Structure formats: structure tokens, C-alpha cells
Amino acid sequence: MLENITRAQLKSMTLKELLALSEEIREKITSTVLENGGHLSSNLGAVELSVALNFVFDFPHDKLVFDVGHQCYAHKLLTGRYKAFNTLRKKGGISGFPKREESEFDFYNVGHAGTSVSAALGIAKARDIKGENFNVIALIGDGSFNNGLIYEAFNSLRLLNTRILLIINDNGMSIAPTVGSMHEYLQLLSENDERKQKNARNSSIFGRFGFAYDGVYDGNDLEKMICKLQEVKERLKTESVILHVVTKKGKGYSFCEENPEMTHGISGGNSAETEYSQVLGSTLINLAEKDERIVAVTAAMTSSLGLSEFFGRYPERSVDVGICEEHATILCASMATQGLKPYYAVYSTFLQRSYDEIVIDICSQNLPVTLCVDRAGVSGADGETHQGVFDLSFLSSVPNLTIAVPKDVKEFENMLLFSADFNAPLAIRYPRSGRNLYGSHDKIVCGKWEKLLSGDGKYAVLACGERAITLAYKAAEILSEKNIRPTVINARFVKPLDRDMLDGLNDKFIITVEDNALIGGFGSLINGYFADKNGGKIIKNFAYSDKFIPQGGVSELMEDLGLSADALADYIIENEN
Amino acid sequence: MLENITRAQLKSMTLKELLALSEEIREKITSTVLENGGHLSSNLGAVELSVALNFVFDFPHDKLVFDVGHQCYAHKLLTGRYKAFNTLRKKGGISGFPKREESEFDFYNVGHAGTSVSAALGIAKARDIKGENFNVIALIGDGSFNNGLIYEAFNSLRLLNTRILLIINDNGMSIAPTVGSMHEYLQLLSENDERKQKNARNSSIFGRFGFAYDGVYDGNDLEKMICKLQEVKERLKTESVILHVVTKKGKGYSFCEENPEMTHGISGGNSAETEYSQVLGSTLINLAEKDERIVAVTAAMTSSLGLSEFFGRYPERSVDVGICEEHATILCASMATQGLKPYYAVYSTFLQRSYDEIVIDICSQNLPVTLCVDRAGVSGADGETHQGVFDLSFLSSVPNLTIAVPKDVKEFENMLLFSADFNAPLAIRYPRSGRNLYGSHDKIVCGKWEKLLSGDGKYAVLACGERAITLAYKAAEILSEKNIRPTVINARFVKPLDRDMLDGLNDKFIITVEDNALIGGFGSLINGYFADKNGGKIIKNFAYSDKFIPQGGVSELMEDLGLSADALADYIIENEN
């Protein structure tokens, strides 16, 4: 029924048919995600809500903005993407996130938390300016609702003098359970105790900002949702409404219902590699044992960042602030002013939210905060909004910041040991996982690189990070068959550069390799280093060219983007001839 | 009395003496700011509050965190900086903002809005972890209170399980009058109508987050403030408190009281130059006349950005969202999805807050939003937290973004005309003001540079932006006396580079000049351009080295940092010999 469903068919369905449709969607999501990886339990929870929204509203005339986008699968299946759905998260396939390029039923691209209310307001305001008439809906989970952007958007609702429907889908979870007072308030609104609930409603925070609040309803009750949305659609003609619904994360798939955090994101990949996050967790526990100043801060990703055990062991020295990356950064900076030694662990893509606070709060004050930048480099199936390929670029120009990139998990451990005594801002960036150990593992000295392979003196490969070093080794293997021996250097500090080693390089060709954007990254620092030296060197940068990187497998993407051992070897061979 | 006041003397003063002291402070602030420039009316409003805080609390044992820092002058005068106060905002002098390096009575460096509650919470949490015992106070104006960071911090108060005092100094102004629902709520709390006020208090938003709310009091009433703070100090032993006070911006200086926006910041500099902001305002009005899609968005700086008249003329197409840079960016992106043509005008330093939204919302969706980046380059007397020297670095690696830098105000106008038909993300960065017009003024073509002076073929100076071009012209003048003629190029697009022109440069020496950080800026793109070409070129970058730039005059700082016509000419002369 779902496969070829038209809007007209959907609109004319009976409740019974819609319920059957919901089951079909649920099955399709489950089977696809178990195969391809993706966000399972959040999407399962939003099935009935998505069916009801598509039944009641007139998309694409009306507009729907998702927050983060971990709830958009059912909407995709209902809007023409059933047949292609088996390509979910694959190269060239259906995106795991809303994507305007993919369908006219996707209205706003998302990936980072808290943007939906602002985006819905902008779309509604544009509608008003253009004198058009349609409904604008933002759908947000309670996890994203912690983000400061929500408050900024709320604050301007009356100012913008427009109308939107905001649906809070409250499942009590970000990826981890939702934390913070706003979450407690949402819970209060859902209280069984009628007196408490009434009290919370009468003094609705939302009313202060100009929203009419309506809740709490069971978002998995399809009939109820349809009635409610029809009613709210009428109210939208005159006012902005918050509809507060509660859904069960992982609904309909008992393993998910019981393990919502574990099944939030299902990885399609192999797990033969060691996760850098595990090394972070265990090393930080060891360090914290000896050093009482060490504290760990996360923004709603404690488990994925490898810090669950640390949090269990040192609850008084651990803070998960929810999806509040800016606040987390300032907490670290301010704790450091008091002599503590904070570690802020975060995915590269989400660190982008902290850019200003890294500049002003951490680095302009030269405070000893360590940024543990996980999922750096191409991150794969989540696509454009989640690739961690900009961190070296936006971090490298920040004064006072030291930037380290480990060659493997063991070196990552050594870098963490190094960080413990390092009394200034430090960022360590690493991919999700790695497989190999390279060379020996000496103590880390700030700004000192390591020569891994000695070459013939014509080609020096400066490789930054495990993925780059893997390529360099493989290229060296290919080249050895042609009797070409490049020097391979583990450029483990992007800042400061190892000037002694650079000065000693007599090779004509300097080749940089990194899992980061070309512009502003490691290679560009090397270009700058040699720019005014009249050495006649030729520098070739292997890095990502100036484009957003779509979804796909990590190796597949790297190869497509010109980061492969073959490309590296070919460049050298070409210059031999 | 103020000049040599000790903590002990202050603590033993009578109310009458303290009142006299306040007057002395007010006079000192006024006379100094009229001489040196600085933030006048916000500081005048906070005199009694600062005296009371210093009388009641035990600094530096207790800690005080300012938000933004436009209210810190009285605190500085009370804590050992009277004698040096005539150096306020001067090179090497007293900072206009709290600065830890300057005094043990400055606890946290600030400059951008909304950080104080997070910082106070971090300091308080560190205190708890270390088992120490002191009071932590955050002082915030109602303007900063709009920022999303506040919500993120509020949300984690209970989570952190700590105690702070938050003083909201409500003067109804950011720099412009404060906007938004939170401001309306603060006003409601100050209502004369007792029923309304009581209703607002009973349902205090702040209570939901775990603060005990106490207000509203006259913050200019010294006696009242002392009593209140003494009372609150007791309460702080068991709970977190919000103390809501109302002060008069510009208090005690009638011109300021009547013109708080105009006197928020007093410029110490000359005004013989043309402000780029004026050009923005008038050009955008002309464009908007013909193009109904054009909308303008600001974050609390409408007047300083030159957009007051635009806002008056097109109120329905203008939005000032308050100090909410992230939200402003998403509003622009989302309005653009509906076919509008948004211009987001913002200071370079504050654009840092929007980095993630520029990447994800504007550029990954390739939407035609124009960023008008004012106060780019060294901005002068506000110091480290306000220099606009990172924008080229953090923007240049963002895919899909075109970056333009006008050579003068007339070219800025032409770039705005260009922007009107440009259907992709665009950033135009410019300093506050300029004096000269350079060369002819042709129509702007994307990625095309302009040759201003033709040289001998040995030295090509690629100058980016008016300040760089001014230096290049002056250097050319110096060099002409030695019969050296460099080519001078107006590199008006940082992205895309003018590859045709670059390919045509046969000069051995390529010299880049820009009013931006060296790392990741214009020069680094040029280094990258030539890196793998075996042309034996020597490239010299004139830009700011990897350090935070302190306060000082613009020209003075540029010269100190090696950006001067002499340095440029000297480099060339050295290479001649």
C-alpha cells in the first residue's frame, strides 16, 4: 500500500487503513535501518505523528521543518521515497536527514540541534512578507529543546508577528536521556498529578513568549493525533501553538523500546577497529585517578564519546549539559580559571557551534582546556551536515591553541598523557576508529613530529592523522615496487609545526595528506611555511577540495575525493617521469 | 577619596561617604570616556550597583563575572585602577572590558554577549569540586539576556547542583532598545499594576529553572542595593538567586540619560572618514525599492550598522532579533528558501557566533544570503575580544561561499549592486570607515580582480581591502623614489581567486597584504595557489601573526603588527639588494 501511495490516496484513507499504513512504515524503517544503519528508535517513535501530519496538512503547500532530522524517515516514506528507501544513507542514495535537493517535501536541511523554530519562523515570516497563505510546522524532540537557539527563536516570535505550529515530540531522550530543567518542566506538564500539572500549565513558560500551549497527548495514538492536528490547524489561523506530545522512542520494536540509547543510531559498518572513544574513556579515568583537577564535559553524547564509565566513576567531576555546545565550552573555560583541568569531548561537526567560545573564552584567556574532537574527518553516512572536515580549518587560525592529531589509538593515549601536564588550550582531533599501530610510541613532545620512513630525499610525505598515515604507508608500498622511496612523516602537531624537521627536509617534493578540507587545513600551513623560502619546492596537498561532502562509506568517499594511496603514488610516479 | 581607596576603607565607609564616592566615580568615568572614547551610559548606570557589590562582597575572594563588560568601569575604579584609568582603551592601558591579566579583581574576560551565567556556573561548580567557599555573582544587562546562552546555562543550574547570584541590570537597552518577549517579561515584572506584577512573579519563568527570583529594585538607590545584597548574600548559602534591578542608562549625565543609544559607545577617533555602514544603508534602500525580495536582519546593532533608515522605511522587511546572532543567521537562511533575498549585517567579531549556521544553514543549502561583515580587520580600542581579524580565516574554508572585499566605499556600493543579482551565499567584509577612492569603479564581476598599478614585472602586490590597498599605494610611492615599480592589484575577491590574473603574473615576488590573520586568510589561499606550480616564486604574506591583538588605535596597531607601508617597501628594497 505504501509503495506507490499518492497524496490523494493518503487523504482519503480510513483510520484503519492509516493504522495499517503505519505498521507498514514501521516495518520498512526497521528492516532498512538494520541493513543500512541509521537512526532507528527516534524514527520509530514518530511514525503515527508523521502519518497524522501528512493526513491533516497539505504538503508541500504547507511546510514542515524537522529539528536535527532524526525523525524524518516516516515522512520520507510517505512522500515518494519508498522505492529508493533501500539506498538510505548509501552513496548517492536517500539521505538520513531532510534534504531539499532530494524532494519538494523536504523544506529545510538540518543536522545540528535547535534550528527548527528559527527556520519555521523565517519561512512563516517570508510567507507573510510575500502575502502567501500556508501553514508552517516545526517538529522538535525534547533533546534539541535544550539548545539555546530555541530561546532566541521564542524571544522573537511576537517581534516577527507571525504564526507557526511547534510540535514538541517528547520521548525523554536526546541520544542519551534528556537532562536539564526544561526537560523537568516538560515532565511536569505531563504529570499524572492533576494539581501539579494544572499549576505548570497555568504558568506556562511558553505563554510568556506568545505561544498557546496545548498538551500533553499520546503521539503514538494516531486517531488522537489526527483530531488534535485538525483542531490546531484551525487555531493556527490566529495564533502560534505549541502541541506537546509524548511518544515512545523505538515504539513497536521491543528491543528498541527497552534500549533507546543503544538503538538511537545503528551503525551499518564493521567493528573490527578500535574506537578512539574507548581510549579516551579509559585513559581519562586513569588520569583522573591521579589528578583531582580533571573534569569531563559533554553535550548529550557521553556514551558515544566513550565517557560513560568516567561519568559513573566520577559523577562529581562530570557534566553532561545536554545539546548545549556553547555553554559546555564556557563551563570548561570558567572551570579552568579556577585551576581545574577540563576535557570537553565533542564530535568535530558539533564543535562548530563552539567556535566563538573557543576563540574568546578558551583561547583569548589562554586556559588549559582540552578539546577532544571525535569523528574528525569524513564521518560517512550522515552526509553533508555531519562530516568533520572543517575543524583543522577553523581551529588553526585561533591563537594560543595547540592542535594535535594522533597517528593511531596508542598515540592518542600518549597525547592524552601529554595533555595532562600541558597548561594551555589544546585540541586533539581523531576519527571514530582505527585499525593499525604505526611505528614506535614515544613520549609526545609539543610540536615534535616523527619520521616513520626514511626516503631517497626527493619526496617527503607529511601525513596528518591515522587515515593519512595509512594512505602514506600504502603508497610507499606501491612505490617500493618502482624503487621509489618517499620519506613518510607523522605530522602529529598541526600547530605548532615542527620547524626543525621542516627545515631539514631537502626533498624537492613536499606532499601533505590530511582528512580535512584543503583550505585552511594542515597543508595550507605547510604551504605558508615554504612560501617565502626560495627553495624551489613543489608542494602538493592531498585534502578535500572546496565542496560539501555527501553521504557514503568513509573509504569510498575518501577515494572519490582523491584521498587514496593510488592517487598519492600516482602523483609521485608522474613526477618521476 | 577614590584615588587610593583600600578595600578596608571602602568597607568602613558610611552611606554618605559611599554616595560621595559614587559621584566621584561618575565624574571620573564621564571625563575619561569623553576623552578616550568608550562605553559611557551603560557604565554610568551601574555605578551604585558596583559600589554596593564591592561594599557587600569580599572580592577577590568572592567572584564577579560581567556579561559583555559594558558595565565594568566603576568596578575597575574601585579595585585599584583609578590612577591608570586615563589610559582606558589606549595601547598598553586599562582595558574597556574585564581582563584577568589586568587585575585579580577581574575574574573572567568577556566581550560577546550571554556568557556570564555559564561562566559563573563554571566557577561555582569548580568551587564545589574543590570544596572551597565563596560567592559567585554574574551581572548581566537585559540586552544580553536575550542570548541563547542564557537559556543553556539556566537549563543546567539544577543539573550542576550549585549556587550563584545572578543580577539582571535592566535598563531597557541593549545598545539599541532591547527587543523580544523576555524583555517584555522583565517589564511585566516591573509593572506598577500590582495584580499584573504579582501574576508575573507567581509564575516566574526563573523559578522553573531553579532560581529564587527577587525584584524589582532601583539599582541606582545605593542604600537599597546594599541592604538587598546583604540579604541576598545570606540566601546564597542555600539557593541561587536572581536579583532584578532597574537602572537608568546614562544616570547622572543628562545628555546620556536622554540619548542612551547614541552615548552607549563614544568613539574617541576622528570622523573625517566615510562610514561603510552609511553606504550599506543607502544602497540597500535603493535596492529594496526595486526588489521586493530584499530583507534586512540585524542582531541589536541596527544603527551602528547603518540600517536605521532602512528599518524605518521598510519595517515589514526588517528584523532586529536582539543579541541572537545564531538565530538571525537561520532566519536569513530560511527566508531565502522561500525566495527572499536576506542581508544579514553584523560586526566581524560577532559573526563568529554564527559559524555553524553559516556552514550548515546558509552554505550547505547554497542559499542567497548576503553577509555584510562590518568592523572587519583590526577594530581598535575594544581589544582582543573585538578585533575582526578572523573572518577571512573561518569563512574561506566554507564551500559555496563567495567572499568579496571592497577597495573603497564606492566599490562597496558596487559590490552591493552585484549582490542583488547574485544567487548564492556571499560575504562582503569591510572596515568601519575609509577615506579614499582608488582607481576607476567598474561593474563587479564575480572572481575578477583589478590591476591598479602596472609594475616592472618583478613584484606583484596583491592587496585585499581598503586598508591593504592604502598601504600598497603608499609603499609604491616610497619605492618610486628608488625607481622600483611594483604591480598593485585590488584582490577584491578572496573566493574565488582570479585565476586568470594569477596565471598571468610573471613577477618573481608575490606579496599579499590583508587586514586579517595570516593563518587561513587571503595570503594562505595565494600560497596554496602557487604551492604546486614549479614557478620558483617567492610569496610574502603581510597579515597578522598568530597572536591575539590587544587594544590600541587602528593605525598604531597595524604598524606594530608589521602592516605598514614602510614594512612593505622595506621588504621589497631588501630583495632588490
Describe the structure.
The structure is a homodimer of 577-residue chains. Chain A has 577 residues and is of the alpha/beta class. Chain A is 40% helix and 17% strand. Chain A is built from 25 helices and 21 strands. In chain A, the strands form 5 sheets. A 7-stranded mixed sheet of chain A has the order 10-9-11-12-14-13-19, sandwiched between helices. In chain A, strands 2-3-4-6-5 form a 5-stranded parallel sheet, sandwiched between helices. In chain A, strand 5, helix 12 and strand 6 form a beta-alpha-beta unit. In chain A, helix 4 packs across helix 12 and helix 21 packs across helix 25. At the A-B interface, helix 6, helix 7, helix 8, helix 9 and helix 16 of A face helix 6, helix 7, helix 8, helix 9 and helix 16 of B.
Query: Which two chains share the most extensive interface?
Result: A-B, 113 and 113 residues
Give the amount of beta strand of chain A, in percent: 15-25%
Q: Tell me the radius of gyration of chain A.
A: 26 Å
What shape does the CA trace of chain A take? globular
* Low-pLDDT ranges of chain A: none
With helices defined by DSSP (H or I, 4 residues minimum), what is the helix count of chain A? 25
Q: Give helix % range of chain A.
A: 25-40%
- Cα(first) to Cα(last) distance of chain A is 62 Å
Secondary-structure-based class of chain A equals alpha/beta
> If strands are numbered along the chain, what order do they take across the biggest sheet of chain A?
10-9-11-12-14-13-19
* Oligomer classification: homodimer
Look at the structure and give the mean pLDDT of chain A.
94
Number of strand segments of chain A: 21
Major β-sheet profile of chain A? 7 strands, mixed
